[in-house]
Amino acid sequence: MRQPLSTDLPFAEGYVLPVDKPLGWTSSDVVRKVKVLLRRLGHRKIKIGHAGTLDPLATGVLLVCIGRATKRAEELQAEQKEYLAGLELGATTPSFDREHPVDRTYPFEHITRESVEEALRGMEGEQWQLPPVYSAKMIDGKRAYEYARRGDEVQMRRALVRIYEMRIEEFEPPRLAIRIRCSKGTYIRSIARDLGERLGSGAYLTSLRRTRSGACSLEDTYSLAEIERILGNRPGVGNDDAPAG
Predict the structure, then answer these.
(1) What pLDDT digit, counting tens, does each position of 90-135 carry?
(2) Contact 101, 91 (CB under 8 A)
(3) Matching Pfam families, A to Z (predicted)?
């Protein structure tokens, strides 16, 4: 059930706002938007952050922590996540998703629903996952994607993650949709890459929607349009609050 949202809430005392992050926005864009709206209500120095980054090409549950709730960000980020991921079989990209064009293609006609189910079962459990080079992982004080975009080679460090469950939602080769329950820090793009390799082919992520973060599901979230309407967006301003590009 959605918690109430209104202009007279004691935001400084602590409030977690579950947002359905739209496509093309960064998590920081959403935080900035909420900050602008709260400043218009008189909350000039209030702290705002988020628990669990979503890439611009991903949508879904983003927990925005306001006021004293920012102290809970790490705790909330540590909770289980659930995603609905769309994949394209038979091809790869440098970023493991559709941010970059396809660099290689592979046969996929041999892939069956049964072989996908077997591969998914084999990927469940605790594992050391290799993050994508095009990611926000910090390497010697810089984001990994900064090195990748310059063409520099960088050694990514594997991270311990846990995949609790993966199941097929749609199988229409070369398109595949899977639902994933996993720990914090899991890169769904890396799951797509690894699954392609296990299937003797390639795969990359075409869409990603976070459907749950901890106890919060999509049904509990507010769209940015709802947040603007409730917190009182002023006419004539708004375009400057949208993400650049």
Answers:
(1) 999 998 999 899 999 999 999 999 999 999 999 999 999 988 776 6
(2) no
(3) TruB_C_2, TruB_N
Cα 107 to its chain centre, rounded Å, is 29
Q: Tokens standing for 139?
A: 């390497």
Active-site residue among 8, 20, 29, 55?
A: 55
Q: Which residues, other chains included, contact 63 with Cβ-Cβ below 8 Å and sequence gap of 6+?
A: 16, 17, 18, 19, 50, 51, 52, 73, 76, 213, 214, 216
Question: Helix, strand or coil for residue 185?
Answer: coil
Instruction: Determine contact, residues 150/207, Cβ cutoff 8 Å.
Output: no
Q: Show the tokens assigned to 170.
A: 């749609």
Amino acid present at 150: R
User: pLDDT digits over 19-33, tens only?
Assistant: 999 999 999 999 999
Reply yes or no on whether 55 is catalytic: yes
Q: Where are the beta strands (DSSP E) in 93-236?
A: 104-105, 125-129, 138-139, 142-143, 159-172, 175-182, 203-213, 216-217
Residue with tokens 């109430």: 4
pLDDT in tens, 67-102: 999 999 999 999 999 999 999 999 999 989 998 999
SS3 of 98, please? coil
CB 17 within 8 A of CB 35: no
